[in-house]
Design a protein that fits this description.
With about 140 residues, this protein is mostly helical. It is built from 4 helices and 2 strands; from the N terminus they run H-H-H-E-E-H. Helices cover about 45% and strands about 5% of the residues.
């Protein structure tokens, strides 16, 4: 006979499927906090990297234009010292979280917006992470 009856040996029971689903859910629950921490850490690193790039552009601009330590500088003045087409160039002084990089006097360099810093969990991103770029 062409058709054969299926024996119970080739199929999974409902209990076995539920156990597999429970194990997968448990693993996802364990991995979620690590993924969230990694995401926050990567966003903070991008914000800090952009601040360093702006600070470098500020230094180069100040040297080439003979600006003194007390001179005030705006982002539009140093924009030409950033690479065109990059995210930092196109965002006109805003960070990826919507805050603004703070530029005042040349001697102060660039500062990360306190509102941006407050968006990160201090247990994931400690305050010393921002040293040199916060008030």
């Amino acid at each position: 006979m062409i058709s054969q009856k299926l024996s119970g040996k080739g199929a999974f029971t409902l209990v076995e499927i539920m156990i597999v689903v429970a194990v997968v859910a448990l693993l996802a629950a364990l991995a979620a906090p690590a993924v969230i921490r990694a995401r926050q850490r990567s966003l903070a690193t991008v914000v800090l990297d952009h601040a360093r790039s702006i600070d470098s552009a500020l230094s180069q601009y100040a040297i080439e234009t003979n600006r003194g330590a007390m001179d005030t500088v705006t982002f539009s003045e140093i924009r030409g010292y950033l690479r065109p087409g990059t995210r930092i160039y196109d965002m006109n002084g805003q960070d990826i979280l919507g805050g603004t990089y703070i530029l005042n006097e040349v001697r102060n360099g660039v500062r990360v917006d306190p509102a941006t810093i407050s968006k990160f969990d201090p247990n994931v991103i400690p305050s010393n992470f921002w040293d040199g770029y916060n008030d």
